Amino acid sequence: MEDKKKIIDFKPREETPQFSAKVQKESRCTHLGIEADETSRKVFCRECGKEIDPFSWILALAKEEVRAESRWYYLTMQAKKIEDRYAQNRRKRVEKLTPKKKD
Ligand SMILES: [Zn+2]
Q: What one-character-per-residue DSSP string does 35-96 give?
């Protein structure tokens, strides 16, 4: 009798990423305020009352924090460049106005 077992190879393909996360499109409202019910341990939209998945809410906050931090870093670097340019221009103006010493 012939063995008709089917062998399925689950070896990952090379293009399989090391890490992946399942991303679900969640039907969320666009309101920003939430209300946490400590008794039921559920989170609701403050405006429309729709129940919000707490993990999704925390994840959204974490992503926003990363974006804000990145933006803050960029703006800090831009401010530093402007300060440096201003200081350099000021030094040049002072040098032009300062009479040169003759030995
Ligand atoms: Zn809402």
A: EEETTTTEEEETTT--EE-HHHHHHHHHHHHHHHHHHHHHHHHHHHHHHHHHHHHHHHHHHH
